[in-house]
Amino acid sequence: MPSLLIADDHPLFRAALRQAARDALGEVELFEAGDLETALATLEAQPQMDLVLLDLHMPGNHGLAGLAAIRAQYPGVAVVVVSANDDPRVVRRALDHGAAGYLPKSAGLDELRDAIRSVLACDTWLPQALRASVARAASSPDDAHLAARLASLSPQQFRVLALVAEGLLNKQIADRLDVQERTVKAHLTAIFERLGVRNRTQASVVLRELELRDPARLLQG
Questions:
Q1: How many Å apart are CA 56 and CA 67, to the nearest integer?
Q2: 208-213: long-range contacts at Cβ-Cβ below 8 A with a sequence spacing of 24 or more?
Q3: What number of CA atoms fall less than 13 Å from residue 164's CA on the CB side?
Q4: CB 96 within 8 A of CB 134
């Protein structure tokens, strides 16, 4: 039986995704999360998860950072990005950072079902309306380089990097991850080397390059 995590902070949209998953797959083990922290904790408890439907802008997720975190920590899990943002350049970036598909929140139930089936069959999925424009959107060399650097980190190194970006000190990171402080220092040495940076500030900037503006919040403003 396939297992699927719906990571979105909107209950009504989660309900639509639940229905689409059941329609597409019949028997399916469903999990839900309303923020990135809960999503990562669910994956920690269920490392054999088959598919994550990931909202780009739910709490704790800053653009593509959540996608990068999941791809780094759980490389065997397929991720379909879900977003109200249908800018082809954003879709291109998501694919370059390891998304197996991109699902606009305007998609109908038929597209939701098609996306779930396609990705579980190991295909990449995009809605028909976006395929031509995404194909024309050139990949950024900077993005490709960034994705490769992040992919070189181990799961624990990525966790350390994320906590550094939150502003935590080494002792605080050690307490959070239940490791010794010297272990954190060793991870930081490896992180700096693999990312090609010299210090914590530069390492934090790497993650901030993944941030995206939420179009919903722009409309509210």
A1: 8
A2: 208/62, 208/165, 209/142, 209/146, 210/62, 210/63, 210/64, 210/65, 210/67, 210/68, 210/97, 210/146, 211/62, 211/63, 211/64, 211/65, 212/56, 212/57, 212/62, 212/63, 212/64, 212/85, 212/90, 213/63
A3: 24
A4: no
Q: Do 37 and 7 touch, CB atoms closer than 8 A?
A: no
Inter-residue contact 54 to 65 (CB < 8 Å) = no
Q: Environment class of residue 30 by beta-carbon count within 10 Å: exposed (0-12), middle (13-18) or buried (19+)?
A: middle
User: In angstroms, rounded to a whole number, what is the distance separating the alpha carbons of residues 193 and 47?
Assistant: 28
Distances (CA, A) of 168 to 11, 55, 89, 140, 200: 32, 25, 32, 31, 10
Average model confidence (pLDDT) across the chain: 89
pLDDT in tens, 108-124: 889 999 999 999 999 99
Please give the pLDDT value at position 208. Answer: 81
Q: Is 207 helix (H, G, I), strand (E, B) or coil?
A: helix
Q: What is the pLDDT of residues 43-83, one digit of tens each?
A: 999 989 999 999 988 888 778 888 988 988 888 999 999 98
